[in-house]
Every structure is written in structure tokens, then in C-alpha cells.
Specification:
The structure holds two protein chains of two kinds. Chain A is mainly alpha-helical. Chain A is built from 38 helices and five strands. Among the domains of chain A are: about 90 residues; about 80 residues, no CATH class; about 130 residues, TATA-Binding Protein, CATH 3.30.310. In chain A, a hairpin with a 5-residue loop joins β4 and β5. In chain B, the strands form six sheets. In chain B, strands 13-15-9-8-25-23-18-21-20 form a nine-stranded mixed β-sheet, covered by helices on one side. Chain B has a five-stranded antiparallel β-sheet with strand order 2-1-5-4-3. In chain B, a hairpin with a 2-residue loop joins β6 and β7. Chain B is about 10% helix and about 40% strand. The chains are: A mainly alpha, B mainly beta. Chain A: One of its GO terms (biological process) is protein targeting.
């Protein structure tokens, strides 16, 4: 924002700052400095006042020193030459008798973000680390981190690191925590600060002295420590027990996470901790601070994923309040959906029903979908409520209900009759594309149960010219053809009209092609049409698939109390994908790999693949075991690896093949089958050739819970009846590799078995 | 670790901004400025994650690179708000602007290089030296509080509402500090009443909040009702038990005498703190403050007659103030005619939330109010009843605690100072189904 009259104001301020009368009066002097700061925070250019401001910093008034310090730090990057002026007086202040002034000077100096400042920093920092005032030591410790950050790539000074490690034993708790933070940043490249046994025990003993921020941070650092023995583990857990009852939610959550992670092999302990954290979480959910409430709700959902019944008796706490913002109401509805059980279903549905008439359409539809979700288990009651809602004859409500009905008819065939009875009359209210598609699908698929289905579809056919959504037209074509098979006499005429329109007049290519396709299909006889179109009308097993069954606690323990829980897995992957991903240390990035895309990998990849060395086959018994549990053994693959094609390629090219094998294969490849099968065992498909391409290739990736990546190439030569598999791994872990290969092998053999 | 900290006005103007980490700063996201009504508390943009809390129309936000704990960030931001209130007095765009130097000093000590240093008011008070300035609204009413010839009037013995909101005196201020102590028992009511009048959900979230202007080191002993019981089974004293289901205390509270005499003792730090939090579920000793008896009748072709009777079941000496009843009405209602039982009430049709807002400034306990609304709508659908209600009431109950919790005594050691105990219950969520 350009500040008008900045020149004038600056000139006037310069006059004031250099006026000896002003300088003699501390109050007026400070007032002038404050005006400069105020101008600066409004976005005005006050860089011209630098010398005057530096001079103003050399007074006894600490408040004024602080103001000047703020100014100097903000302006220094723009004028490094002048900033050196300030360094001199700051160095003098570093020897001031008052710790507040020493600390301030040191912090200011470390905060000057300009090149070449390091040489001036070193000595004051070393003095600061040994200062007798804890305030100065706190500043100095973080100052070290700032200095190292300024240096960039330079070698880290070993003596400094040692000094910081020894300061972990400082008297002052904040110095201790700052040391951890500083070491973490300084040693970032080596994987952060090392928490070995003496340090871990020392930190545990210091915990009571720390304030809540320090405690939650130390608890996070302790996640890194792996106790040597069971006894030690339980000693630690006993020591930390009190923190689960802290009055600060951040400490409670950090402690909970530490418990969950440390006790990863003791499900009983984990369950016990989750019971104990219930109270604090629920009171955060009803907190006055909306934002805290939201954060807690996200964590409640996370826990519910493993323990569906965990909060069922507290369902009333998740009733929405009228004045709450949308983001809370949406979370609460999700929670209500997940904790519903035989006892509370009546009350929960009653409550959700109230939200369906909310003035916000988004919320009303959310509530309807929530009821539909519950309907998968408690079908009858929910269908009753949804049918009742149709009576409101409101566009957004009817649309959402019909969409819910379509999904229900697909997933729970037992409710089809009820749904079909409720449908007549809906067509007048629905206006949006999604709702129309759902209605048309229902009419087409279950038309034989709805007496007036052909006449409703006829209305759609009449108005097809003015229909603006191509997706609706496509749905209409399919539905009408299906209904034609069931009730030919009523549909023949309008089917002809619709096909004529789609082929002759329609502008949208996809619709036109669909019309043409059906036309030709009809030419080959009704039997053929029946064979192609009469697919099953429902699939209850889909419900079981979509409904993620209980996740083990260990699957999310490491995400607990992080932003990943707030955003949810998908959004978190998206949010972090925007960040420049740092290459992991074990694989230096390729020179120009970023310019290549996946396609190039497919063409160049095989040049770098060494010759095939068939792996020794696994023993039969072992294989049988793995068939029962595809990802058993020491390996557990995490379900969502967010690896982009570029990252994959980079890593792929930088690694050597660890293992090669070939599997018998005959016939063509059905990409979808393989992809689905692999997804079941948490192996992601990164890229795949088109079906029938020769040679056919696929690139797969997977990651286990320790972060080890498995990259795989599948290659099927044309005439070859063998599928060549090459696997690369970014950390040398032979057992994990073995388990991965056997899992992969099981899946591929299973698919090959299916297809042959 | 925080990357930035910022405070925005309700219009989205950047009032205060700190960039702790340097490097390429990501600007404060636009979504605050676009005037989005309710932005979710966490948003990500350009690899940074922005968290914010809202207080009094201001946005207090922070950004982080993603390794921070969400609970810590939110808790810190809430703490920041409390601290700013302690140091600067009531928060507003204006008061932050006037106290720019003070806020700057405070932030400097709170966070260094993105790491939270300390939030203890006493420590901060010794480090921060600027003096607070409180914007004074000009008001002729202020003249009314000037006593005649300095005589102590009744008025000066009642703690003015604003007294507790004043900022803490600076540690080295020249004016003698005015030692005072405010103890507030605040309760929030969450209630759902079924159409037949039976309570479906009754919940009270209570807290005892302390605002201390006492010299540091003073010991405070707070005696609570003797019959205060925690949990379902405990029985104490001879009177009606004051039962809470869960109860947690601030870490500085000593509970040595809590078991025997229900006495909490502590050395309060200057400033605001939450001493104790408690929850009551399902059972409260007094009847619920409001019941609604509605009668709705359709008058075909296009009219609904709605007769509401609101009964206040508080004890006769108490009252509810700022009562507002919101009743959602069917879509398409275009006009409203009303007959209210007294002239100080008002009712209007709020088309934004599609509801009737019936406002009543004050209801005395034991009384009953009625209102007749006639709603006009283009056509009467067959399911119009579904869209009517549920009603939401919001109100304040001054001087009352729904749980029955009282403070028996407040003792200071050493010395004495004016002490105020205030009770206030308000509705968080009061739903009356029709």
C-alpha cells in the first residue's frame, strides 16, 4: 500500500528525531520513534530514517531500544551497509549490565537478516551462551539457530553443537527447550536432534519444571526415543501418566500421542489411554472457543475410526447448536453418523432430521446425506424420514434425498420397494444435474416397479432440447433403453425419438456417440442389448467396501495431534504436495530428471534395468501364509502414499534394482483388475501403459510404516509369457523387501489366475 | 513452530504482523479479506498452514509449516488473546492501534524465531515496560457516576462492569496499583427439550474465572458450597447436593483442603485465569428456565396461525435478560403480523435465517408471555409443519448458577482488598422442539 505524503512525513520525522530538544525529553523522543514505527506498519517507506533511528537506539530507555530494534530488523535487509552502523552500538549493548538490554541486543543482532553478519555474531553468541542471566542464554541459544539458518549450506560448527547439547542440562527450563529447538534446526540435515537414553531420561525428569508449551514440545521430541526394554517403556509411561490429566489440552494430546506411539505393541495400553483421553477431548469439544472445539472434533473422528463405539454414550454432546459455524456443524454431523448404535439411533435421527430443514442448503443436504449414511445400517427408519422430507417439495432437499435413494437402492436392495413408492412427484421439484441423474437412473433401473416411470421419462425426453447438462442426457439414454427392455410397449416410440434427437441434433459428442452406440446395439437384436445392459441392479458388497472397516490405532497414531488429522488424509496429501518435496538423503536427485515426465520414464526406464536374475522362489509354506494375509509378516504398508509421478521417477532413477523376478503370465493384461487388486494390499499404481500396448509396463509404489519406499516396474514383452518384475528400495531392508515381494507376488499370481 | 503471527480487523485490515522466520513470506491469505462469513480455523496456502481464532470481531492468526500441533496453535492463540486483554484492556481495533508499542513488546517476549517462549503474565510484566492506554468512549453518562462531594454512594460500592476489563498496571508504574479481585462463576447451558416437554439433553459447562489485580504472592482461599460433589455417587453435607460430573482445576490450585472443606487455595498471578472447569449432565437442581407451548394451525389457503406461550420457570426473584427466541418458519413466508403481550417486546421476520425473531428484554421468574403470529405464504405445502421449528432461545441469567454452585467465601492472606463474586449463566444452546 503506497502511503501518500510519505516524503513529507519522513522529512518531518527526521527533523524531530534530530532535534536536540526532543532528544532531551525521553517522552517526546519515544513518541517520535513510535510514529516512525506506526508509519512503517502502515506500509510507508521509512528507510531514509535509518541513521537517526540507530542513534535513537543508543539511549537508556529500554522501550525505545525495543522499538528501534524492531525497526532495524525490518529495514536491515534493504540496507545492509547502514545496518553495520547498528551492529557497533548493539555489540556495545551486549556488554550492558542489564540482562534485558543484553538479551535485546543479542536478539536484534541475530535477527538482522543480511549477508556477512555472521562474523560479528560469533563472539557475542558464545558469550551469550555462557551468560549468567537465563534470559540472555535463552536468546543466545535460539540465536545460534538463526545464525546457522543465515549461513545456509556451510558446515555446521561441531563445537557449537556440543555446547548446545551440554546446555540441555541448564538450570532454566526455557533454555533447555530452546536448546532442543535450536539443535533440531541446526541438525536438520542429519535428521534432527538425537534423543538418546541419558537425554530422554534427563528430559523426563525436567518435565515438571516446564510450562505447558515446553511440556507439549518435549513430549513431541520424546516420540523419537525408543526404549530399550519393556521395563523402561513402562517406567516412562508411569512417569508421564500425570500429563494425561493436565489442564492444557495441548499437553494432554501430546502425551496421548506419545503413549499411543510408545505402546504400539500393547493394544491394551492404547485402548486404556484412549478411554482416559475421552474426558479432556469431550470437554474441548464443548469448549467456548469454537476453534478448539473444531480441533477436538477432528480428533474424535480419528479415534472413532478405530473404536466406533468409543463416544456412543456421549452422543448428545455432538448435537449441533444453532449459533455454531458451519465447519463445526459439519464435523458434528459426521461424528453423529459414526457413533450411531442401536440405543441412540432414534435420538440421533430425530436430531439430524431437524437439520434437514436448515436455511443453509449446504447444511441441509449434509444432514440428508448423513441420514442416508446411517440408512445403510438402519434402513427402514431412515427411508421413512427421507420420504417424509420429500413432502417439503423443495428443490435442494428433494435432489439430495433422491441422490441418497439411488445410493441406497444400489447398496441395500431390501429398501428398493419403499424407495420406488416414494419417487412419483419428485420430477417436478428437481432442477439440478445430480438430482436429475439420480432420478433418471432410478426410473430406468427400477422402472418395472414404478407405474408411471415411462411417462416421467417421456417428460424428460420432451424437454431434452432444453436440457443443459450432457450428463443428464447420457443417463436418460441408458435409463430409457433399460426401461425399454422391461416395458417395451410404452417406451418404444419415445426411445426412437430420443435416439433420433441424440444422433441428428445433439451438439455434445459424448452424448451423440452414446446414442449411436445404442442405436447399433439395438440393430444387433434385443438379446444382445439385454446381455449388455442388464447388469445387476444392486451390489450390497459395495457398502462393505466403501465403509472403511476398523482401522488399527497404529495406522493413525503418528498423525494424532498433527494437522494431518485436521485436514483428513486426502486434503493433507494435497496440501503437502504443493510444498517442494526435499529429496530424501538416500537418493540424490538426478540432474535433469525434473524436466522429464512419466511418459519418458516408460520409454527410458528399461535401458537402465539390468539383466534379469530370477529370485529364488519362496518356500511353499511361507507363500501359503502370505496368501491368507497379503501384507502379513514384518511388513505393513501404509495405505496412502502421496508420491507424484515426478517424485517417483526421480527416486526410481536414483536407485539400483534390488530384486528381479519373473512370473508366468498368459494372455492380455486387464489394467483395472491389477490396479484394484494391488490397492487392496496398499500398493499404488503410479503409471501404466494402455491395455494391449506392447511391451506393456506399469510402475507401482508402496511405503511401509517405517517410511521405506518400494518402487516396482512390471514389464510384459509381447510374445513373452513371463511378467518381469523389478523392485527397488530406498533403504536396504532385506526382510521388508522379502515380505513386499511375496505380497506382490501373491497378488499378481492371484490376478493371473483370475484371467487365465 | 510458527512462521507468522497476525491480527486482522473484522474488515480484513492487517493490524499487526510478525514474520518470525524470514525468507520468502507468504502473504496473509486473502480469504480473511474476502469477508467469508465463517472461514474454517485451519487453511493451507502455498505450503503454509494458517490457523486463526476469532475474538470480538478480530482475527488472531498464525501460520506454520505443518509440523506444529493444532492444539498447541489454537491454545496459544487463545492465550494470546487473554494476554492482550490483560495488558491492553478490552480489545478492539482502536485499542490495539493505541497500544502498538506494548503489543510489540509483548510479542517480542512471547515468541522468538517462531518458538513460544513464555506466556506467564508475571514474567511478561517484568519484561514489558510500555504503559497501556485505554480508549475512553466519550459519554455523558460517565458524569453520573461522580459522587456528590466525594460521598460514597451506593453506586460506587457496586463493581462497575468495566472494572474487571481494565488492563493490568505496569510493573514499574508510578500510580499505586488498586488491588482488587474478581471471581466469576460462568455457566453455559445446553438444553434440548422434546415436543412433549421432557428434557432430552441437559448439560451445563461451568467455569470459575479469576481476574486478579492483587499484588503477586497474595494467597487466596476460595470456599465453595459444602455440598459440592464430584461424580454420581458422592454424598456430602445435609443440604441439596451440588453435583457435577467432571471437574478439573488449573495447575496452580492447591487441593489440600478440597477434600475436607471444599476450599481451593492458590496464589493467583495477575491477570485472567480459569481456575476450575466443571460439567453437569442430565440433572440440574432447578427446573429448566424456559418452556414453550406452541399451537400452530393452518388457515387455508395460505396462512399459518402460530400461538406461542413462553413460560419462565426461574425463581420469582430472578430474571432472564436479553431473551431472544428464534423460530424457523416454512420457506416462502413473506409477511408476518403479530400480537405481543407487552410493548417492550418486539418480533420480526428475519428472511436471512428464515425465522421469526422474538426479542424480550427481560422476563421475571414465574411469569408467562404469549404471542400470536400470523404468517402469510404463497401456498401451503403438505409438510409445512416439518419446517416449523425447532425454536432456539438465547438468554442470560444474571446472578444465577444453574448447577447451584456458590462461592462461600474469599479470603486473602495477607491483607484485604475489594473482592467481587459474580454469577452468570447463559444459554449456549437452548432448543425447544415443536
Amino acid at each position: 500500500m503506497p502511503y501518500l505524503g510519505g516524503e513529507e512525513a519522513q522529512r518531518e520525522l527526521r527533523r524531530a528525531l534530530s532535534n536536540p530538544h526532543v532528544q532531551a525529553d525521553p517522552a517526546r523522543y519515544r513518541g517520535a520513534v513510535l510514529r516512525v514505527i506506526r508509519l512503517m506498519s502502515q506500509g510507508a517507506d521509512v528507510s531514509g530514517l535509518f541513521p537517526e533511528m540507530v542513534k535513537a537506539g543508543a539511549v537508556a530507555d529500554v522501550v525505545q531500544k525495543k522499538l528501534v530494534s524492531f525497526y532495524v530488523r525490518a529495514q536491515a535487509p534493504r540496507q545492509p551497509q547502514l545496518a553495520l552502523l547498528a551492529v557497533n552500538s548493539l555489540r556495545k549493548d551486549c556488554a550492558h549490565p542489564s540482562p534485558a538490554v543484553r538479551g535485546l541486543a543479542l536478539r536484534t543482532m541475530c535477527g538482522l537478516r543480511m549477508p556477512g553478519i555472521q562474523e560479528y555474531l560469533q563472539q557475542p553468541l558464545v558469550n551469550g551462551l555462557r551468560d549468567k542471566a537465563s534470559y540472555v542464554r535463552r536468546v543466545a541459544v535460539l540465536g545460534c539457530a538463526k545464525m546457522v539458518k543465515l549461513q545456509g549450506d556451510c558446515e555446521v560448527d561441531g563445537a557449537l553443537v556440543n555446547e548446545l547439547y551440554s546446555l540441555l542440562r541448564d538450570q532454566d527450563p526455557i533454555v533447555v527447550v530452546n536448546c532442543l529447538r535450536a539443535l533440531e534446526e541446526i541438525l536438520k540435515k542429519e535428521g534432527g536432534v538425537v534423543i538418546n537414553k541419558p537425554i530422554a531420561h534427563h528430559l523426563l525428569n525436567r518435565m515438571p519444571d516446564l510450562d505447558q508449551w515446553g511440556q507439549s514440545e518435549v513430549l513431541t521430541f520424546l516420540l523419537r526415543y525408543k526404549p530399550r526394554s519393556e521395563d523402561e517403556l513402562f517406567d516412562i509411561l508411569n512417569l508421564l501418566d500425570g500429563y494425561l490429566k493436565s489442564s492444557s489440552p495441548s499437553v494432554v494430546m501430546a502425551a496421548t500421542k506419545l503413549f499411543l506411539v510408545l505402546a504400539r505393541e500393547y493394544p491394551d495400553v492404547q485402548a486404556d489411554v484412549l478411554v482416559r483421553v475421552k474426558g479432556p477431548l469431550l470437554s474441548a469439544c464443548t469448549s467456548e472457543s469454537r476453534e478448539l472445539c473444531f480441533t477436538a472434533l477432528c480428533h474424535v473422528r480419528q479415534i472413532l475410526r478405530s473404536l466406533p463405539g468409543h463416544f456412543s454414550s456421549h452422543y448428545k454432546k455432538f448435537f449441533c447448536s444453532y449459533s455454531e459455524p458451519h465447519y463445526i456443524k459439519c464435523q458434528k454431523m459426521e461424528v453423529l453418523c459414526e457413533l450411531v448404535n442401536d440405543e441412540n439411533v432414534q435420538q440421533v435421527l430425530e436430531e439430524l432430521k431437524g437439520y434437514c430443514t436448515d436455511v443453509s442448503e449446504e447444511l441441509a443436504q449434509g444432514a440428508i446425506f448423513a441420514i442416508a449414511n446411517i440408512a445403510r445400517t438402519y434402513t427402514e427408519q431412515c427411508v421413512g424420514i427421507l420420504t417424509e422430507l420429500l413432502g417439503l417439495q423443495q428443490e435442494h432437499i428433494t435432489s439430495a434425498v433422491v441422490r441418497a435413494f439411488r445410493d441406497l437402492a444400489w447398496l441395500c436392495p431390501q429398501c428398493t420397494d419403499a424407495v420406488c413408492q416414494a419417487l412419483p412427484g419428485c420430477e417436478d421439484t428437481i432442477q439440478d444435474s445430480e438430482g436429475k441423474q439420480a432420478l433418471i437412473w432410478l426410473l430406468g433401473t427400477h422402472g418395472e416397479k414404478i407405474p408411471n416411470a415411462p411417462y416421467v421419462l417421456e417428460d424428460f425426453v420432451e424437454s431434452v432440447k432444453s436440457e443443459s447438462f450432457p450428463a443428464v442426457k447420457m443417463e436418460l439414454l441408458t435409463a430409457l433403453l433399460r426401461l425399454f427392455l422391461a416395458r417395451p410397449a410404452e417406451c418404444q416410440d419415445m426411445l426412437g425419438r430420443l435416439l433420433y434427437y441424440c444422433i441428428e441434433e445433439e451438439q455434445d459428442m459424448a452424448v451423440r456417440d452414446r446414442g449411436l452406440f445404442y442405436y447399433r446395439l439395438l440393430q444387433s437384436g434385443v438379446e444382445e442389448v439385454r446381455r449388455v445392459l442388464c447388469s445387476p441392479k444392486s451390489d450390497p458388497s459395495m457398502g462393505l467396501l466403501g465403509d472403511q472397516s476398523k482401522q488399527p490405532v497404529n495406522a493413525w497414531a503418528s498423525e494424532f495431534n498433527t494437522l494431518a488429522t485436521i485436514y483428513g488424509r486426502e486434503r493433507w496429501a494435497l496440501a503437502t504436495a504443493q510444498q517442494p518435496v526435499e529429496p530424501s538423503h538416500s537418493c540424490p536427485p538426478c540432474a535433469d530428471s525434473s524436466s522429464r515426465d512419466t511418459e519418458s520414464l516408460v520409454s527410458e526406464g528399461n535401458k537402465e534395468v539390468p539383466e534379469v536374475h530370477p529370485d529364488t522362489p519362496m518356500s511353499e509354506g511361507n507363500k501359503e501364509l502370505l496368501k491368507a494375509h497379503p501384507d502379513a509378516g514384518s511388513l505393513s504398508l501404509i495405505p496412502d502414499v502421496s508420491l507424484t509421478a515426478e517424485q517417483f521417477e526421480k527416486t526410481w532413477l536414483s536407485l539400483d534394482t534390488c530384486c528381479q523376478l519373473s512370473l508366468p503370465w498368459c494372455g492380455p493384461v486387464h489394467a483395472d483388475t491389477i490396479q484394484t487388486a494391488l490397492r487392496v494390499v496398499h500398493i499404488q499404481t503410479i503409471a501404466m501403459s494402455k491395455a494391449g500396448a506392447q511391451p506393456w509396463k506399469a510402475y507401482l509404489s508402496a511405503q511401509d510404516d517405517s517410511g521405506c519406499l518400494f518402487l516396482t516396474e512390471l514389464l510384459l514383452e509381447a510374445a513373452d509369457s513371463e511378467l518381469q518384475v523389478s523392485v527397488k528400495q530406498n533403504e536396504a531392508k532385506p526382510e521388508a523387501l522379502q515380505s513386499f515381494i511375496s505380497a506382490l507376488r501373491t497378488v499378481l499370481e492371484a490376478v493371473a489366475g483370475l484371467e487365465s | 513452530m510458527l512462521s507468522q503471527l497476525f491480527i486482522l480487523s473484522s474488515k480484513g485490515d492487517l493490524l499487526i504482523h510478525r514474520d518470525f522466520r524470514g525468507g520468502s513470506p507468504v502473504p496473509v491469505p486473502e480469504f480473511f479479506r474476502r469477508g467469508v462469513e465463517q472461514p474454517p480455523p485451519f487453511q493451507s496456502l502455498g505450503g503454509l498452514h494458517f490457523a486463526h481464532v476469532r475474538h470480538g470481531g478480530l482475527f488472531f492468526g498464525a501460520s506454520t509449516e505443518g509440523d506444529a500441533s493444532p492444539f498447541t496453535i489454537i491454545e496459544f492463540l487463545n492465550r494470546l488473546v487473554t494476554l492482550l486483554r490483560d495488558f491492553c484492556g478490552p480489545l478492539s481495533e482502536k485499542s490495539l492501534g493505541m497500544n502498538l508499542a506494548l503489543v510489540g513488546e509483548l510479542l517480542e517476549e512471547l515468541v522468538d524465531f517462531g518458538h513460544i517462549q513464555t506466556t506467564t503474565p508475571e514474567v511478561l510484566r517484568s519484561l514489558v515496560q510500555s504503559e497501556p492506554e485505554v480508549p475512553k468512549p466519550f459519554s455523558l453518562l460517565d458524569l453520573g457516576s461522580v459522587g456528590l462531594f466525594g460521598a460514597e454512594t451506593q453506586q460506587s460500592r457496586v463493581a462497575p462492569g468495566a472494572a474487571a476489563a481494565r488492563p493490568l498496571p505496569p510493573a514499574r508504574g508510578d500510580q499505586p496499583p488498586r488491588p482488587e479481585l474478581f471471581v466469576d462463576v460462568l455457566e453455559r447451558l445446553s438444553v434440548v427439550i422434546a415436543a412433549n416437554g421432557s428434557p432430552l439433553k441437559v448439560e451445563v459447562q461451568g467455569e470459575i474465572r479469576l481476574k486478579s489485580f492483587l499484588p503477586p504472592g497474595t494467597e487466596l482461599r476460595i470456599g465453595l458450597t459444602e455440598e459440592f460433589c464430584v461424580g454420581k455417587s458422592e454424598l456430602r453435607g445435609y443440604g441439596t447436593p451440588v453435583r457435577v460430573d467432571e471437574c478439573s482445576f488449573h495447575s496452580s490450585v492447591s487441593l489440600a483442603e478440597f477434600g475436607s472443606g471444599r476450599v481451593l487455595s492458590l496464589r493467583p498471578e495477575p491477570g485472567e485465569m480459569t481456575l476450575m472447569q466443571y460439567q453437569v449432565q442430565d440433572e440440574i437442581p432447578a427446573p429448566l428456565p424456559f418452556r414453550l407451548f406452541p399451537t400452530a394451525r393452518a388457515q387455508p389457503p395460505n396462512r399459518i396461525h402460530l400461538y406461542l406461550k413462553l413460560r419462565c420457570d426461574l425463581p420469582p426473584k430472578s430474571q432472564a435478560i436479553n431473551v431472544c427466541l428464534q423460530l424457523p418458519v416454512p420457506k416462502g413466508v413473506s409477511s408476518l403480523s403479530q400480537e405481543l403481550s407487552s410493548p417492550d417486546q418486539s418480533a420480526e421476520l428475519d428472511l436471512g435465517s428464515r425465522s421469526i425473531r422474538w426479542e424480550i428484554p427481560k422476563i421475571q421468574g414465574g411469569s408467562q408471555l404469549s404471542a400470536l403470529f400470523k404468517l402469510d405464504l404463497p401456498s401451503l405445502g403438505r409438510a409445512w409443519r416439518l419446517e416449523l421449528g425447532p425454536a432456539h432461545a438465547s438468554f442470560e441469567l444474571p446472578g444465577l448458577s444453574c448447577s447451584g454452585l456458590r462461592v462461600r467465601f474469599l479470603r486473602l492472606l495477607p491483607g484485604t482488598a475489594p473482592r467481587w463474586v459474580r454469577y452468570r449463566s447463559c444459554s449456549e444452546h437452548y432448543v425447544l422442539r415443536l
